[in-house]
Amino acid sequence: GENVEQHPSTLSVQEGDSAVIKCTYSDSASNYFPWYKQELGKRPQLIIDIRSNVGEKKDQRIAVTLNKTAKHFSLHITETQPEDSAVYFCAASTGGFKTIFGAGTRLFVKA
Amino acid sequence: GAVVSQHPSWVICKSGTSVKIECRSLDFQATTMFWYRQFPKQSLMLMATSNEGSKATYEQGVEKDKFLINHASLTLSTLTVTSAHPEDSSFYICSARSPDGDTQYFGPGTRLTVL
After folding, report:
1. Measuring CA to CA, which residue among B84, B111, B104, B81 is closest to residue B30?
2. Nearest Cα to A90, choosing from A29, A21, A30?
């Protein structure tokens, strides 16, 4: 069945450094790739998304890249801040129907 | 925009009783809503897809008679956990699909504890 793998499961960086989270997907029909941030006990919040007709998208300190051929997509956070500490989930979707989530990456930003 | 509410935020019940959780899209109409279950430090596990005016589609391994889903209007879906047992204790989160058809917006979740 469809699968999304996410790495690493835990990531610890120093404040100001960059953080990169990588995901791979199995369903070649996937065409929408959102990223969610979930703080402890709270709802997942959409932080950025990318569609399959775009290779890269940036929003301030956050960027996402997509390699359709390799079925890879990545989240890049630059100049990390303590408030970036949270669990990040990648996901792959086909036409907005079933969305498959990665296992999550727990990001710690040390001040 | 794109706000999804969920009620209650937490509930404690006795084993054998039923619990209803409501998911509402407050400022948009959602023909499709999703119900997820999340265990501590784990990912979101899709339980079922709720379609307005029709039967829900359940994922493999999810008992439809135990987790009753009703999507009676374009802004409300409900999940009823019937005959709850301690192993049903979990964080249940709903989401609503945006009008553009791609993005999911999540509710704040309901923490269910079954004693």
Report:
1. B104
2. A21
Burial of B28 (0-12, 13-18, 19+ CB in 10 A): middle
Q: What is the pLDDT of residue B98?
A: 84
Phi-psi region of B88 (alpha: psi -120 to 50; beta: other; left: phi over 0): alpha
Instruction: Report which of A38, A9, A12 is spatially closest to residue A102, judged by C-alpha positions.
Output: A9
Q: How far apart are CA B91 and CA B42, in angstroms?
A: 11
CB B84 within 8 A of CB B19: yes
Tokens matching residue A71: 């079925």
The per-residue pLDDT for range A19-67, each reduced to its tens digit, is 999 999 999 999 999 999 999 889 999 999 999 888 999 999 999 999 9
**DSSP class of B59:** P
Are the C-beta atoms of residues A44 and A91 closer than 8 Å to each other? no
Chain A positions touching B107 (Cβ under 8 A) are 43
What is the pLDDT, as a whole number, of residue B80? Answer: 97
Please give the interface size between A and B, counted as residue pairs whose CB atoms are below 8 Å apart.
49
**What are phi and psi for residue A93, nearest 5 degrees?**
-135, 150
Nearest Cβ partner for A96 among B101, B107, B109: B101
User: Residue A49: its chain B contacts at CB < 8 A?
Assistant: 102-103
